[in-house]
Amino acid sequence: MSAAFSESRNQSDKRSTSRPRTPRPTTPLRPSSHSSFRESARSSGEQDAPFPLNAFEPAFAELADSIADLEANLMHFQLMHESLARFGESFAGFLYGLNMNAFCVDFPEGPIPESFRHPREHGTQSGPKSRDARGTEESESEATFMTTDISFVENPVSQKSSKFTTPEAKAPQRILQRLNMPLTRHMFAAAQRAAVPTMGLGLRRMATVSSSALDQKVKQNNWEEGNFINYKKMAENLAIVRGRLNNRPLTYAEKILYSHLDDPHGQEIERGVSYLKLRPDRVACQDATAQMAILQFMSAGMPSVANPTTVHCDHLIEAQVGGAKDLERAIGINKEVYDFLASACAKYNIGFWKPGSGIIHQILLENYAFPGGLLIGTDSHTPNAGGLGMCAIGVGGADAVDVMANLPWELKAPKVIGVKLTGQMSGWTSPKDIILKVAGILTVKGGTGAIVEYHGPGVDQISATGMGTICNMGAEIGATTSLFPFNDRMYDYLKATKRQAIGDFSRAYAKELREDEGAEYDQLIEINLSELEPHINGPFTPDLATPISKFSQAVKENNWPSELKVGLIGSCTNSSYEDMSRAASIARDALDHGIKSKAIFTVTPGSEQIRATIERDGQLQTFEEFGGVVLANACGPCIGQWDRKDVKKGDANSIISSYNRNFTGRNDGNPATHSFVTSPDLVVAMTIAGSLHFNPLTDKLKDKDGNEFMLSPPSGDGLPALGYDPGQDTYQAPPQERASLAVKVSPTSDRLQLLEPFAPWDGKDVLDIPILIKCQGKTTTDHISMAGPWLKYRGHLDNISNNMLIGAINEENGQSNKVRNIVSGGYDAVPAVARDYKKNGIKWVVIGDWNYGEGSSREHAALEPRHLGGLAIITRSFARIHETNLKKQGMLPLTFSNPADYDLIKPDDKVDVLCTELAVGKPLTMRVHPKNGEAFEVKLSHTFNEPQLEWFKNGSALNTMAKSQK
Ligand code: SF4
């Protein structure tokens, strides 16, 4: 196992296996008596005396001349990347040869002899050139940087350090130090890139991609100018990390993440342990979460977003009677929110997708996703873009703001779960059944902290949109994201959506757009698609997976309501052209037999493009003829935006959808609704029968004349033969001239409020302040900032702060939302007491137990205490994301250095927080003044680093950013 990767490799169950790993040599630097490079590699186990490097000094000097000369050409990119790479290869081969006992002859003066060049199939030539003064100066300055950038360890195999530990990483620096020669980052990277393929020395060759092939300027999408896909930079980053990881074969997920590292040289990397600092390519926000994200971004004082960003209006449209009318009504109700988002997007250079354009994830797949890219989105089903090989991760608004403001984004290095697909799907089995099966295997928690990576021969038959479906619903198993490797199906989809140039560029980088041979997964699941049955999952949880052959029995055994009331297809999960075509083929089959949908049937197209295309191609008319209601291109019933009238709240009933989530009450707010999820194919089939007992694979229906017939298996085109019809133009591009634009926020709005910058720290200790609440037991982000009806106020910090900590239990009385006010002496709601303290200029603290702030990454849970005058949250421990969120808002998240001190604190104590002691790595003191008794001190620990301390001092991370803009 790699030194830097010491995670345990779980073998989960009998379906799980792990692949053997390719052994790699770790031979120390020493001489050899062998004349052949390859021979010496084979005998590299011997131990000899240290190698006398000065014997090769003339040759090193020659190489140094050449290196310095190449450095002088750094401005000429083509020359640099081709020539330097060639020198890098030769030099690295030379270094590697030393390392592998390759040399036994005197090194001659003059050009590097053929025998010392790197033993690759594609031989390279390099020749000496004269040194150039400018090149030398540049080299020296960079050499200084490198000296601090690299640390050596004597036993790389036993080190967990992420610093350079590999022989090829150490050798260039060590030799050049001896020779007093400069080594630049560029040269080092080139040498490492070239050294990487040699590590297997014939055992295994790592693919490298021609530098010039990656020099193209290919736009990320057809909507934005100036945003390009940077495979070249990704390849360079990846080469650096490969060198550091002993050339261990990488999963595709790792390749994407490591190629987006902010600091590939210095980043600690340990799967499941380290926190990676990443540079995503894009940000996407849906309308409900975009509000606070943009409000926060505005506080940073930046003129525009630093990274490409889009906002999508899809969550606020309620399904009532049908697409056009519902959309019109939603535009009226949500006008102030839409006006705000549209104006802010124009002002800050953000692409704005108007209401009616479609669901965020379908729009991203159709327009923005590209293989190998890294996207963060403020919605949990962002992973949908994995259908185009993009690493797309759902995050909270604060994380999105970081990337919009050009801060690196932090992610715990995920574990990687492999799902190997073999065989071929046929008949009624569809891509949805793959994820329904996986959800059954892994359960709703099984993917937590992991990326699910699909691979194997079975992936090539799945359409890009089908892969999107599978990745989308990976959120239901808690996965960080899900991914498919780049393949021809993705190319076809890119071409069909007018992005063939991206497809061609991806082909040039294709070797890095999939897993390496021998890549190791933390867990491996194998699914034979030839044997995969259609599945139905639910009710109430998406991981209760039942194959169709056993479903009728399960309905009986569990006493689920067998009459099917409503079938719903669409949502971001299953609304592709392929989904709609297959579903329409079943509906047409029924119509051809003279029957229609028995249950209520609804369709939500994923985008305006899909709606317009299926309208043109006839599927939409088929659905309407079948009895269906076509809803707006939006989330609708999937997020509970459904004015359902066919059952009363509390009545037990069953519905089935092609959506992804089916938790209690999610679709219609009725906890008695049994919601099942399945493929659109089965939704339509069961809607025809109107019964959960129907199995279209085995059961017959009756036609209009009472004759029995069986539905034909679904069929349909993956891509529209006539191309996609874009439909109405629903995109608002940001204008070129934005400085004079104003963001529209009504001062009387109860849904939107501009954020005022928080006050900076006054540089003093904070004395004699109350404990607002001492929380007992679990305090999650739901306890700190509840959802439900409060969602409406997500864009209004003052209004939503009225839910602050109303779910937390007060240790003093065992009740929620009832705390004592030290000013009035009476009891009141937590937010009311906090407001009273704020009004009287009194800061306050909260005392919490273990893992305070677990749950979601909701930034409101950190914004609200800051807004209502809190100074510190003091706990036994924090959920990491919440702790970071608190720091970002200028709060002090502190932990008892001795967790037992939690028990010493009483809710009516007062405390002094000695903020002036705050320093990196040092605890600070809290003086406790019990109501009756002697004052005592406890030590409080923290995890602030230097930049984060600036956040506290300046009042918030955004203030710090704003300050840096001045
Ligand atoms: S359709 Fe459903 S799952 Fe998809 S983004 Fe909308 S609410 Fe979320």
From TrEMBL:
Where is this protein localized, as stated in its record? Mitochondrion
Q: List the record's Gene Ontology CC terms alphabetically.
A: cytosol; DASH complex; mitochondrion; mitotic spindle
Which keywords annotate this record?
Iron, Iron-sulfur, Lyase, Metal-binding, Mitochondrion, Transit peptide, Tricarboxylic acid cycle
Report the main location listed first in the record: mitochondrion
> Biased-composition ranges for Basic and acidic residues?
115-137
Q: Which residues form the Aconitase A/isopropylmalate dehydratase small subunit swivel domain?
A: 771-898
> Can you give the residue ranges of the Aconitase/3-isopropylmalate dehydratase large subunit alpha/beta/alpha domain?
254-690
Q: What is its EC number?
A: 4.2.1.-
Give an example GO biological process: tricarboxylic acid cycle
For this chain, one GO molecular function annotation is: 4 iron, 4 sulfur cluster binding
Q: What class of enzyme is it?
A: lyase
Tell me where on the tree of life, at the top rank, the source sits: Eukaryota
Q: Which PROSITE patterns match?
A: ACONITASE_1, ACONITASE_2
Q: Does the keyword Iron apply?
A: yes
Per its Swiss-Prot or TrEMBL entry, what cofactor is needed? [4Fe-4S] cluster
Substrates-to-products reaction catalysed: citrate = D-threo-isocitrate
Matches recorded under Gene3D superfamilies: Aconitase, Domain 2 (3.40.1060.10), Aconitase, domain 3 (3.30.499.10), Aconitase, domain 4 (3.20.19.10)
Q: Which family is this protein grouped under? A: Belongs to the aconitase/IPM isomerase family.
Q: Kindly give the PANTHER family that the UniProt entry links to this protein.
A: ACONITATE HYDRATASE B (PTHR43160), ACONITATE HYDRATASE, MITOCHONDRIAL (PTHR43160:SF3)
Q: Which NCBIfam families match?
A: aconitase_mito, PRK07229.1
Q: What is this protein called?
A: Aconitate hydratase, mitochondrial
Q: What is the lineage of its organism?
A: Eukaryota, Fungi, Dikarya, Ascomycota, Pezizomycotina
